[in-house]
Amino acid sequence: MTGTEKIATGSILIGLIVLGLKTFAWWLTGSVALMSDAMESIVNVATAIAALIAIRIAARPADRDHPYGHHKAEFFSAVLEGVMIIVAALLILREAWHAFQAPRMLDAPLAGLLINGFAGVLNAGWCWVLISRGRRLRSPALVADGHHLLSDVISSGGVVLGVALAVVTGWAVLDPALAALVAVNILWSGWKVIASSVSGLMDEAVDNDTLADIRTTISDNATGAIEAHDLRTRHAGARTFIDFHLVVDGQTTVDAAHDICDRIEQALKAQVPGSMITIHVEPEHKAKHSGVLVI
Known about the structure:
Layout: H1 3-29, H2 32-58, H3 73-101, H4 109-136, H5 140-169, H6 174-201, H7 208-221, E1 225-236, E2 239-248, H8 254-271, E3 275-283, E4 292-293
Parallel strand pairs: 2-3
Antiparallel strand pairs: 1-2, 1-4
Helix pairs in contact: 1-2, 1-4, 2-3, 2-5, 2-6, 3-5, 3-6, 4-5, 5-6, 7-8
């Protein structure tokens, strides 16, 4: 089992524990706001399972039907997660509306709030693990799961504070009002997850800083060539695809041109881990005098 798979499996276990704690808090209090928090945890568990499946598919080697690999499977998982988040938010809004019509005071609020607060702390710790390790492992599924948990942590904190205010002030209507606010926060989180995942499915280029590093690496390691042009990049999960045309002197031998390409590839793979590079060698009359000029 890879490091990414271990973290994804850990997300399922943490999600189940948090779901149990939040469901117990809801059962103790009867709070609609705490119920909304528990419903979001159901989504957490479901999406953690989807993320693990996607990560395992993405780890499969390239085959005849998928010669570029299965890396985009993680983006599909993130889109599914975003859709499920939005569905959960709509269900919470429905329950909040019913509670608005008949607000009631809560049972055993202190015990419920303490249990829910502990679940929130547990989620916060795991959220940090998912985002930090997900970025290090270049896993969109883990990062998306981490950002979803971050929204859960924020909304959980708001719920605990709001329910405490409802108990102190005696304003029972605060409970469904908080549930509605949680739902809106979840909707925004779901939209951001979907938007970021769709960009990956649409073969979005690398960010400007990474592109600048790629251009500099090519220029510094292409001694013997003239220029590189038509540089293109895209990312798919942990993979970054880089392709460009490399112009060399027309008298350069095939062996010499191949050596230049090997040197550039090694440098790019060190600069951009997980990159796959395609270089098209051209003679000097194909030069465009643009793109990456070799130092």
